[in-house]
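Anyone? Bumping this.
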Amino acid sequence: MTGKIQKSTNSEKRGRLMMKTWQAVKRLLPMTAIFGLILAGCGREDLSVLRPQGPAAESSLGLMKLSIAIMVVVLLIVFSIAAYVIIRFRRKPGQQEIPKQVEGNFKLEVLWTVIPLILVVVLAVPTVKAVFAAGNDHANDKNAIKVKVTGHQFWWEFEYTDYGVKTAQDLVIPKGKDIAFELTTADVLHSFWVPSLSGKIDTNPAGTINRFSFSAPNEGVYRGKCAELCGPSHGLMEFKVKSVSEDAFEQWIASMKSPVAVLPEDPELAKTFKNQCLKCHAIGDQGLAVGPNLTGIGSREAIAGILLNDDTGVDGAPIEENLKTWLHDPQSVKPGNLMPNPKDLGLSDAEIDGIAAYLANYTLD
Amino acid sequence: MAQAAHTLNPSKPLGHGHSVKRHTGLMDWITTVDHKKIAILYLIAGGLFFGIGGFEAILIRIQLIKPMNSFLDAQTFNELITMHGTTMIFLGVMPVIFALMNAVIPLQIGARDVAFPFLNALGFWTFLFGGILLNLSWVMGGAPDAGWTAYTPLSTSTYSTTHGVDFYTIGLQIAGLGTLIGGINFLATIITMRAPGMSFMRMPMFAWTTFITSAIILFAFPAITVGLVLLTFDRIIGANFFEVGAGGNPILWQHIFWIFGHPEVYILILPAFGIISEVIPTFARKRLFGYSSMVFATILIAFLGFMVWAHHMFTTGLGPVANALFSVSTMLIAVPTGIKIFNWLLTMWGGQVRFTTPNLFAVGFIPTFTMGGVTGVMLASAPADFQFHDTYFVVAHFHYVIVGGLVLGLFAGLHYWWPKMFGRMLSEKLGKWTFWTFILGFHLTFFVQHFLGLMGMQRRVFTYLPNQHFDVLNLVSTIGAFLMGVGMIIFLTNIFLTSRKPADAAADPWEDGRTLEWSIPSPPPEYNFKQTPLVRGIDAFWKEKTAGHTEMTPAEPVGSIHMPSATMLPFLMSVGIFIAGLGFMFSRDEFKSDFVGFMFNNYLVTAIGLLITFGSMLMRSLFDDQGWHIEPEELEGEQI
Amino acid sequence: MTTPHAEAANNTLPYEPEKATLEGRNKVLGFWLFLGGEAVLFGTLFATFLALRNQTNDGPTANELFHLPLVAAATFILLVSSLTSVFAIQAMHRNRPALLRNWLLVTVGLGLGFLILEIYEFSQYIRHEEFGMTTSAFSSAFYTLVGFHGAHVAFGILWIFVLILQMSRKGLTVVTAPKVYVSAIYWHFIDVVWVFIFTVVYLLGKVG
């Protein structure tokens, strides 16, 4: 950021002088390129490891910064010795005498054994500290919100065990509170990763279940991903973490818990929805929990985790359109997913569009 | 000392054990037990697989050139990344390493052959047939798709329903057998076949790293053998090692895989260290700085390499104690590796560095590998690795180590020893073009991937959403990959053009050769050394040259030389294993033809394959092969 | 190159014929190295077994299954066969081919006895206990570990038998001696592995 400002003021000065503009551009181009790269290298606020939004991610980044600092020093030393040697000790034309054959140098060798050892210790001490700090999973913390995460091919299920609430794809959490996760999988291994909030952890099957914890001090929507190869649509197994105020969280829980059985208004459509969709999905207290829970799906950030809902159309499409895209051909959106194509279940295009419209409007208060 | 045994009895009453069969053409290559020819076989086969793996890489990069690309579908993409990784590591770079070991090690230690010429050939053929089996998956119902790490349960028959992963387990099993045989062979060769005077601490550095690498192979490969057996049993005969429902434990696979997999990394990189330690002294005209600390560092790296496997599993959830321990042990590897880097730099210090193609690659190796090394230390810090793990940062890291380290090392070695292997110098001009396009392409491809990982791009994704700041960097990466491809094409062109020139390379074509291989003709005669040389110090040939001699002092008089006989058996044994593997893989399938079904479902095909293999072993055991002799008169006739 | 057949004919076999030639020494060394790899192989199988030995999936447990007297008998047989293979090598060092052959035959016979007991044991489990490869993770680990060992024994029997045949044709020479010697090392190795199996699989299964 500061780089960009500096660049513009610099070029303004030069512009005012009206001299040798070309030279200035030539000098500034690489700088702009570098600053551009650095800015691009930081990534999105809601996604990048380099722009942490919570203490866990900050701790990871802190260690990264320390290690990068040490490693840059090492690299600079190696690069400069290499550059010096390459330039200074080139064989000159006509050089015939045999260079002195040096066996080694005990002092030097001790030096470059001991110094790296010290550097390793400098990095190892905070690493060990952070490892044990990250080991605090808040499983027995009464103030923490307990969430059971279950990975499925290729979607995420979130169960708020203390509240008896189940949802999918959007993890809603109160800001600032520690969330105590218990992670498992229904099929293959997945890895639960919200880069801007915390490092990742695998979802293992029964017997090797993991626990960990993070918190999000600020309100916002953060992008989460699956980080362990889990089949064809591994790359599309995304989810969102919505950090909201404590009041909003309580309200969300309340509306999730109230058995809102708002079926489609059209009785025919309601029947189809009940007989087909609710064979696998649940809304409120109806249906089965084989597929993702659809309660309040109209309020979610995305459909199927990757079709982003955005009425402006900039970052995605309006929710109803996304639902139609998904329902008309789920395989083309997420290859290998387990949802049957509604058309194969005998739903007509009109019915599918009707259900899409119904779901799009099925919001929580 | 070794060869002396052959000539202790100058009267040689036996003469030729039996008539000497000399094959020509294809039969010569199929039956050869000559380590120099086996080296060429390894190089051709390894090069072929390397090409396949490279082509797969290009396809992967084309798919990732832009967000939501539909050049490849998700399933094909997963097959490609699996095969790219598996092919490159097991069938691409390892055979090229074995090619260089075979071509150089016996010459460097002053031996006429390896300890087990028959096993040497067997190792090559099993590797080749294993590799062919694995790649047959492309045309026989689908390639493996669970990643080269084949994590369970994704790789179990519940979630990977084609035969792909069976090709993976059985193909790697067969190829791995070849590697294990090769490892044992080089260990024994280096222990017993060194020329008189060549103590361990006078061995060239490449011989040392080969020795240590072989030891790692010996102790690491059986672990993956077992892992692959367990997965095969789960998939084909319904065992429950990784079936959660029946009490199995998928995490067990990760432990077994990485107990093998991490040492495997050092199996790959140590030979490159050895090559660099040969090339740099030659072209700096200075002996290797800190030889004994180099040896010590190599041993230490191998030792530590076995105690760090769980750093691949920080996010598996092993608990803070294990994570802390494995973090620290991993960081420790930086120390011996650092020793090596500084020793190479100090070797050039005060020397007269010549930038020939091999040395360009060697000098380019140092900063590139260092970059891969420092990201390795960063990854070692478990809490930071929670973020790095399974992202493009890791992809960048291991490509810096394997391509920026090993492949640059292999290029250095190939350019360096090409005249020794083929008697022809590769073109320096094209070599330099290869270097610059390849290394620029390499950094372009992989440097940006560090940032992709940090910005939240996980690895093994077949596509990605737009607006995540991933687009430009992925485009840059793909362009770099194409540039590397150009480098490879230039290299192949160089080989082709060189092969059309006369084979006129001098014995010591770089003029500053230091080790024994440069004291004999290029390419060497079948028996390598007319007389076993007497080694009087480290850099034996250089020592003689500086003393004013033009060749080595012999340790024995000219005499009859014992040679092993060419044989078809290693090839047949590998064919047998190949058939048995295929038979076992399809033993539970249904076939249209009753006869074929009968053959497969009753394990008859497997039995036939095993019969061929064991029958060949029996032949080998029952009919002694005394080998044959090259008589002094025949030696005199040759131009040496 | 020395002439093995001539030597045998003149009865001038050196004291340790297995180490008389470079090929022989290489063979012995290479075989020791191979056994290093085998040790890792069995080590990994043992680790797998230890990790899964309590995962019985409602099938039979080790305690219910194992019948120690039978296993103890098998252990005894195999240990004795190790001893007889030592006698065989001593006979070889004393250059007494006939005695060598007899001790090898005894070794092979004992090995066969062990193998028959093992096959009987497995068939009992499969027929009467409904304990097959696919029963549980424990059963898979059990059959794989013990079965791998059994396959090694079977291979050893075949191998030594072939060597007996070979010696009957060629006699004891510096070519055949290293083969006999390494087969004896191999036999001891699978014996040692069995001692571990007896402890880790059977005794631990009964106690723990």
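Late reply, but here is one note on the structure posted above: The longest strand of chain B covers residues 561-563.
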